[in-house]
Amino acid sequence: MSDDFKSFRCQSGFSSPPCYAAEVAPDYFDPLAVDPEQARDVARWRKAERARLRAARLALSVAERKEIGEALTGHLRQVLQDRFGGAQGKVFSAYWPIKGEPDLRPLMAELHKAGITVALPLVETRAAPLTFRRWTPETRMVRGDWNIPVPPSDATVVTPDIALAPLVGWTAEGYRLGYGGGYFDRTLAVLKPKPFVVGIGFQEARLQTIYPQPHDIPLDLIVTENGVQAIRDVV
One Pfam annotation, family name (predicted)? Predict the structure, then answer.
């Protein structure tokens, strides 16, 4: 085992005494130099971080979540205005909040009222890219994978111009720690043209690194209740 790999194991918290990822420089991990043992360690570290971050956000009170959701709505409204002129003529993909995620459904209804096409992602086929179906406030939702409410099968399938990606964790370089299914990365790899992707997360969920793997695709923008936190590209 190389000294670099031993150092990685210590910094990832997989040795004794444990070290912590927050102490590791974000560019320490070379995504092109992956070996199976290292990848397994990264996967274990990510699993532990997901559990920690999800527990922290579920511990928030209803009032705190509402305040964060309202702050995020305001920042997103400004992002759409500044970058897309309000997003008129665009297809905007949001998400249905689960597991303590910020609730942006009021913004979805607001955008629909303004004449913007709003969509929601769903798993139509396991281990395949996501499908996006049009949503309106009148849409009669059905239960999809993991019991997440989704538009029914007769809803119009669309391709988003702008897509929100819920975050469990995030980095200043625009990398996303999700739920581990790989659906967003898989989708972004095949969508043509690629949508402008905005990660939505909590400020306290910032990580120094997620130890990027070759399949990890950085997002274009990350927004928290404190505002825009990471910008990868300029529209």
Answer: 5-FTHF_cyc-lig
